[in-house]
Amino acid sequence: MLKKATSLKAAYSNSTADFRQALTQKYTIAQEVCANFDKNDFGAYVQAMLKAI
């Protein structure tokens, strides 16, 4: 039982870390897009959008 609980906890920790990482990536992309949009650099904006897909 303890072994199962430990592996469940590890799986939960991994999924939480993955979720956090995905959230950070999305946030970073959003920041890049906003920064590029502020510069009126449409080429960079399109590049950032393509990176997000």
List the helices and strands and how they pair.
Blueprint: H1 2-38, H2 42-52
Report on this model:
With 53 residues, this protein is an all-alpha fold. It has a domain of 34 residues. Helix content is 91%, strand content 0%. The chain is built from two helices and no strands. The model has no long low-confidence stretch (mean pLDDT 74).
SSE order, one letter for each helix or strand:
HH
Mind telling me the C-alpha Rg?
Answer: 18 Å
Low-confidence stretches: none
* Strand coverage percent: under 5%
C-alpha geometry = rod-shaped
Report the biggest beta sheet as strand number plus sense, adding barrel if it closes: none
**Helical percentage:** over 70%
Separate helix tally:
2
User: How would you classify the helix and strand content by structural class?
Assistant: mainly alpha
| Average pLDDT level | 74
How many E-type strands? Answer: 0
Oligomer: single chain
Query: How far apart lie the N and C ends?
Result: 42 Å
Short account of what is shown:
By secondary structure, the protein is an all-alpha fold. It has helices at about 1-40, 40-50.
Descriptive keywords:
single chain; 53 residues; mainly alpha; 2 helices; 0% strand
